[in-house]
Amino acid sequence: MPALPTLGRKGRTTRNGRGMTPIPVPLSAYVVDCGVYVDGKRLPGRWTHIAAIEEVRKRQNGFVWIGLHEPDEEQIQSIAETFGLHELAVEDAVHAHQRPKLERYDDMLFMVLKTVRYVAHESPETANEIVESGEIMVFVGRDYVITVRHGKHAGLATLRHLLEEDPEKLALGPAAVLYQIADHVVDRYLEVTSAVEDDIDQMEVAVFDPRSDVDPEQIYLMKREVMELRRAVGPLATPLRRLAEGYIPLVPEQVRSYFRDVDDHLTTVHDRVVAFDELLTTLIDAVLAKITLRQNNDMRKISAWVAIISVPTMVAGIYGMNFDFMPELKWAFGYPMVLCVIVIACVVVYRIFRRNRWL
């Protein structure tokens, strides 16, 4: 069967006489929104990134906020050239899979934040995924903010609308947008940790229920999801502290106090996540101890029944040696007597094991 045209990152493809030719996807396909903000208010109209920054620099006031969703290298190149973005930061923004960090390139900041989303499920004992992660990269300059989003759940449209309803905060400039994005991400951390805490509570109840049979692999899976959350939360503390303590000139004094508040919330989240990790480790130890105890009980029962069965086996082995001179061989009641002795001995041994809770 001949190959069919495919839709890839570079765009749609068409068939010609020499094979498949890619059709470039315009930059507008990756731009979620582009707005110009002056004195905290958004200017009307639709803007390209070139026209937007020209308008801001002509006014010498305001800033541009461009939102991108998973652009490729070719599509982001025009924006990188227009705004003078550093090539290393652009490469990180395109390829994603970065740890949370804050980097400064001359008069530009580049910040990476990991986003998380709680995946709803029926029970933590059967869930295959609890936390889904994504990324938001933010370029911040004197008169622009460029956000690059990876993942389906990390949308910023609602956040943008909320900020547009608060012109006083937007008037503080691009740093205020960076703060609001960081606050939005950390608030999601709080929501996710609350949901994960409920799951861990359910798992804890199930582990210590005598009638339950929790698979330790499920707790390992939950521990892995908590580690995913920890990788998002832990490295973000240092960038927020740098923004809050005034090491970055692009962040005005009025905005630093906001970052201190975000840092406090992040500390709360980090403490929760560390506690989750420790509790799950304890639950794993408890499950393994229950499994070991169950195996020990099974072995005790097996050993007890082996001991009981060994009584008639021993008697039968003695009388099976076929010697001519053995006790009671010529006695008419010898056989019933031996059976009675065997039964009584087995009952006595059984009672002893029952009294010692081996059976």
Automatic annotation (TrEMBL):
Cellular localization per UniProt: Cell membrane; Membrane
Membrane topology annotation: Multi-pass membrane protein
Keywords: Cell membrane, Ion transport, Magnesium, Membrane, Transmembrane, Transmembrane helix, Transport
Reactions it catalyzes: Mg(2+)(in) = Mg(2+)(out)
Signal sequence, renumbered to the chain: none
NCBIfam families: corA
Family named by the database record: Belongs to the CorA metal ion transporter (MIT) (TC 1.A.35) family.
Name of the protein in question: Magnesium transport protein CorA
Species name: Allokutzneria albata (Kibdelosporangium albatum)
